Each structure stands twice: as C-alpha cells, then as structure tokens.
Amino acid sequence: MPKISIVTDSTAYLDEKTLVENEISVIPLSVVFDQETIRETEMGTEEFYGKMRAREKLPTTSQPSIGEFIDLYEKLGESSDSILSFHLSSGISGTFETAVAASRSIEDVNVYPFDSEISCSAQGYYAVEAAKLAREGKTVDEIFETLTSIRDTLAGYFIVADLNHLHRGGRMSGAQKFLGSALQIKPILHFKDKVIVPFEKVRTEKRAIKRVMELLEQDAADGPVRATVVHANVPEKAEEIRSTLDKKYDNLEIDLGVFGPVIGTHLGEKSLGLTWYKK
C-alpha cells in the first residue's frame, strides 16, 4: 500500500497527542520580539501572551524558509510515496506559496500543498482527517474528495478584544478598524476569499458569542457536527461556551483549541472563535 505522509504548519495548533497518534509532521512559523526569533513550537501559549503583555511593541511573525520545507519533504520522501501538506490561508501568509515552491524542487516523492483558506483548528481538521483516511488506505484523490466535502460545510467565526492587533499586523484595513473602534462594537470576523473580513457587527461580546452559537446551532440541528471553541488565553470562558453547546446537542462533537503565538500576534489576547463542519 502506498505510504502517504501528512504535514501541517504550527498554526493548526494540534496538540502533541494528536500529532503523534496521526503521525503528522509540523513545520513551525515564528514570532519575533525585537531581535529575538522564537519558533512557536518552542513557546507555550500562556508564556507568549505574558511576554506580549509585558512589551509595548507588538511582535512580528515570520514564515518557514523554503529550505526548511525542502528538508522536511526530502526526509519524509525517504519512506513515503506522497506528502499532503496543509497550511494556513494564503491570503494572510506566504507559507502556502513557499510550500508550493518547495514541492517543485522535490523529485522522488509527490508533494501536494493544500491551502486551507483559514487557520487554527479548522486547518487542523484537514490534516487530521487526511491522516485518518491515509491509514484506511485511501488514495490521494479519495482523500481530497473527502476534504472538499469538509470545505463545503466548514465555518469559522471569531471575536477579538482589540482590533488594533489586526490593523497593525496588516490583516485588517484602517477603515474596518476605525469602524469597530468608533462605534465600540464587537465585530464578528471570518475568512472570506482567504482573508479576514467582518461578518456582522454586534454591540457587545456577549451578544457576539450568542450570535456565533446561533450560527453553529443552525448546522447542528441538521446532523452530526465536529466543532472547536478556540481561545486566546481565556480557557474558562471557552470552556463555558463548549459546555453549553455540548449539553444542548447530542450530535455535537466539540472540544477546545487555542490561538497560539503567530495567530495570537494578529488577533490579540482574549480573542474567541468557534469553528465547525458537518460530519
């Protein structure tokens, strides 16, 4: 049976247990505090947010080099026939394009970079499902057919505590940032056409959370749903949302995820998200 290896980048924020069980390799992005570059796989989430709070200047982020991709692909290629490589949206990072460039330099194994068009737990769904299907002996085409069906129902919404992080990081326009600040609203954001844009504008965080939960409930009413509550260093609030939804729907498989250092740089501490797809 042909061997298929799975790669994702660190912004999927899959825990160690999931990575080991599914034999998923991770290529890390980095955060840069002044002149100090730290791979986000080498820094815990709490440590990162504490470090960011302690500094006036926001960190920046950097993507993996093409050489890092080539090294990983060549290593995996020694024991694989194909590599599926899942990455955060090409609309907010050049990581996917770098993976594509690296794949063209590899001769002895077929590499298939995949633009998740999103990030974090939603990106992780693709990698974990691909690993599961590969273990079942599915072909590359069969795996991508399933991933396409996931993409058709995938949804993800998030609420940030401070739009300045997105604005300063270049992930949201000045006009959009000003609108949120001027009206003192909590915009619900989502990915559209690979970039972060407002979905709806709501007055308070409580109302924003309620609205996002309503969106999930529309899908959960139709059948089994896989969901994740994602948070930026507010685990208690995230668990409250998870528990509320878990008790309400028997057909909902829901857990917690995190906005780690790279994504947290752009969203800021105390951000919350909810992502899901129909199983």
TrEMBL record:
Gene3D superfamilies: 3.30.1180.10, 3.40.50.10170
InterPro entries assigned: DegV, DegV_C, DegV_domain_contain
Domain of life: Bacteria
GO-annotated molecular function: lipid binding
Keyword Secreted recorded: no
Keyword terms of this UniProt record: Lipid-binding
Keyword Secreted: no
SUPFAM superfamilies reported for this sequence: DAK1/DegV-like (SSF82549)
PANTHER family per the UniProt record, alphabetical: DEGV DOMAIN-CONTAINING PROTEIN DR_1986-RELATED, FATTY ACID-BINDING PROTEIN TM_1468
NCBIfam families (alphabetical): DegV
Protein name (Swiss-Prot/TrEMBL): DegV family protein
Organism annotation: Salicibibacter cibarius
